[in-house]
Write a structure and sequence with these properties.
Helix content: 25-40%
Number of helices: 21
Strand content: 15-25%
CATH architecture of the largest domain: 4-Layer Sandwich
CATH superfamily of the largest domain: Ribonuclease Z/Hydroxyacylglutathione hydrolase-like
CATH topology of the largest domain: Metallo-beta-lactamase, Chain A
Number of domains: 4
Structural class: alpha/beta
CATH class of the largest domain: Alpha Beta
Length: 636
């Protein structure tokens, strides 16, 4: 039976159940959803059980959307929304999504915009036929979020066509005969960087992550040229665990070479991933390095993104269902749980996880309905990899900053724009507020301000305590007046030459370029100054060389290679990492419910993957392995 036959049968069943007074104009697959278009959306809205009963009888996820012909023109609809919603709700932005007939309204006071028992929302729906949703306006407007939403709006017709193609491919049915489930390690196994795995069944090919190793100039991309991967058009779906470049940096390359399918991730991952990929192109061009793809390829990724929230489940291929769970690593990071076949096999890919409540996030989720295999990271899986607690890390950072300011020195913190920056900001703000360190300016250079703005756009992804502080007390530590955005080269030069003590958070986190290098070049030869490492420094990076105590650092200064004598204090403040340490990794696996039958270790230096694999096998009596890149493991 073809997809057209399936749709014809479904349409017949729907028309047999839906009252004749409800005008159905079209029924179509869009991604995993069965979408019913109607010219009388109100009648569907008042008959709530109708959709529920249809979904049950058809065994499909159903969405009812107004037919495009009944949607009020966007300009008129915007004026009507502003006339209906009271002024004291303080609307900041209105985003229309014509591809799904929805309008998102940002307001400073969402309650005032919704109205008592949703009265205002209902009035908007009846007046303009768009489906409205009200969200709290972020306190810092993100350029990235705004541009992505604007781009998707301008591409709504093309986006709808993309979703229909995905839907038709997804509902092609499953084959008869032998079933199998296997994974091939394409990158990031027995190493940190270029994470990529292929999950393969008799009917599906799913790629989990497609990262780049920014610390390597040679072997920096995954093995995506393997016969089982190519041609790229045969891949059904790409799933991204989180936005860091070692997991998402080469996704645009897939579109450059022929992939046309969906990318599944959370909304914050889509936005952060776009920010980091655009910056990667900018940095590569500035360093006169060959760029692997263009900004047009990045826009193609955005167009094909299907976003999901934590706990959401969706079909991504004819025989694989995906659920995202919080991974606790960075904003929107996910443990990806795959349910293969009708109860055939369940496998979870952890991505990078933090199994501890941090200043930003709740701990990684390790309870699932079913799980037979787990693929987990091992970044800090070595026998000596124990990190201090968040409280101990705070005390250490407090002492370092106090001592440096006392000597009238500067504190330079190389940070990843996403995750570590915001954690360090919250700690510093707390120390200043409690008068535990002197109030000095804290400068944010690089993408940190924009990444922070994206954090404020998605407060629902932050931990319970921080959400409560933001919403109930009206206090957002990320918005403190101690933080100053470095928004020009002139401002950076002024900070560098000023004699007053200060703290600078600057990208990149491993000193692979970016603004951190400008401060480092100028401050490295003064022993009053301090550089503090708060994140992982990969082998081969400038950050690792400095952290290890090299006294002479070769630097490119004005086109000449100069050996820079390093006199500034070099400190490491462990405990800020977004990765679990050895104790937490063991706890994550040991406390998992239900217990997996098999655990596969990756995303760690070779010795750490092997050591953790051996330890878990002995302690937990589980079948474990630490494959090399290019190995294939068959589960069923």
């Amino acid at each position: 039976m073809t997809v057209d036959d399936v749709l014809r049968e479904i349409k017949g069943k729907i028309r047999g159940v839906v009252p004749v007074s409800i005008d159905i104009s079209d029924v179509e697959f869009e991604g995993a959803l069965l979408v019913i278009y109607t010219k009388t959306p109100d009648k569907f809205a008042t008959n709530r059980d109708l959709v529920k009963n249809l979904a049950k009888s058809l065994q499909k996820r159903i969405v009812v959307r107004p037919d495009p012909s009944v949607l009020t023109d966007i300009d008129i609809a915007e004026k009507k929304i502003k006339s209906i919603i009271p002024k004291d709700a303080e609307i900041t932005n209105i985003y229309f999504q014509p591809d799904v007939g929805e309008v998102t309204i940002e307001a400073m006071k969402p309650g005032a915009a919704i109205g008592k028992e949703g009265l205002i929302l209902n009035e908007i729906r009846k007046t303009i036929n768009w489906t409205p949703s009200i969200i709290r306006a972020p306190p810092i407007q993100s350029k990235t979020v705004k541009e992505i939403r604007g781009y998707l709006r301008s591409m709504s017709d093309e986006r709808k066509e993309i979703l229909r193609k995905i839907g038709r491919k997804l509902h092609r049915g499953v084959s008869e005969g032998e079933k199998f489930v296997r994974m091939t390690s394409l990158g990031g196994y027995r190493q940190v960087g270029r994470s990529c795995t292929l999950l393969h069944t008799q009917d599906s090919k799913v790629m989990i992550d497609c990262g780049i190793d920014v610390s390597s100039d040679n072997n920096n991309s995954p093995y995506i040229h393997l016969p089982e991967v190519l041609p790229l058009e045969t891949i059904d779906a790409v799933v991204i665990t989180h936005a860091h470049l070692d997991h998402s940096g080469l996704v645009p390359l897939l579109y450059k070479y022929g992939y046309e399918g969906p990318v599944y991730c959370t909304s914050p991952t889509r936005d952060m991933m776009t920010l980091l990929q655009m910056d990667y192109l900018k940095v590569a061009a500035a360093d006169a390095k060959k760029v692997p793809y263009s900004s047009e390829n990045i826009r193609n990724v955005i167009k094909h993104c299907i976003t999901m929230g934590y706990g959401d489940t969706t079909d991504i291929t004819p025989d694989i269902r995906l659920t995202f769970h919080n991974a606790g690593h960075i904003l929107g990071s996910s443990v990806c749980h795959f349910h293969v076949g009708e109860g055939l096999y369940n496998i979870a890919f952890s991505g990078d996880i933090k199994y501890e409540r941090t200043w930003l996030f709740n701990p990684a989720v390790n309870h699932y309905p079913r799980i037979e295999a787990l693929v987990v990271e091992s970044t800090y899986g070595g026998k000596d990899d124990y990190q201090p607690s968040r409280r101990e890390a705070t005390e250490r950072l407090k002492d370092i900053i106090r001592q440096s300011i006392k000597k009238k020195g500067k504190v330079l913190v190389p940070v990843f724009a996403v995750g570590r920056s915001q954690e360090v900001m919250i700690v510093i703000e707390n120390l200043v507020r409690n008068k535990e360190i002197p109030k000095s300016p804290v400068y944010l250079d690089g993408m940190i301000w924009e990444a922070t703005a994206i954090h404020t756009a998605y407060p629902e992804y932050l931990n319970n305590r921080l959400r409560s502080q933001i919403f109930q007390k009206g206090e957002n530590p990320l918005l403190s007046d101690i933080f100053k955005r470095v928004d020009s080269v002139e401002m950076r030069e002024k900070i560098i030459t000023e004699s007053d003590p200060c703290v600078v958070l600057a990208t990149s986190g491993m000193m692979n370029g970016g603004p951190v290098m400008e401060y480092f070049k100028s401050w490295a030869q003064d022993n009053k100054n301090t550089i503090v490492f708060v994140g992982y420094q990969a082998e081969g990076t400038m950050g690792r060389k400095v952290q290890r105590g090299s006294k002479s650092i070769p630097m490119n200064i004005s086109g000449d290679i100069v050996n820079l004598e390093l006199k500034m204090n070099v400190e490491t403040c462990d405990g800020f990492s977004g990765h679990s340490d050895r104790r937490q990794l063991i706890g994550f696996i040991n406390n998992m419910s239900p217990r997996p039958e098999k655990v596969i270790f990756g995303h760690g230096e070779e010795s750490k993957c092997l050591d953790l694999s051996s330890t878990i096998h002995k302690r937990c009596n589980l079948n474990t392995t630490a494959p090399m890149n290019l190995e294939t493991i068959r589960f069923v």
